[in-house]
Amino acid sequence: MITSKQRAMLRSMANTIDTILYIGKDGIGSGTIKSADDALEARELIKGCVQQECPLTSREALNQLSEALHAEQVQCIGRRFVLYRQSRENPRIVLP
Question: Is the pTM of this model over 0.85?
Answer without folding.
Answer: yes
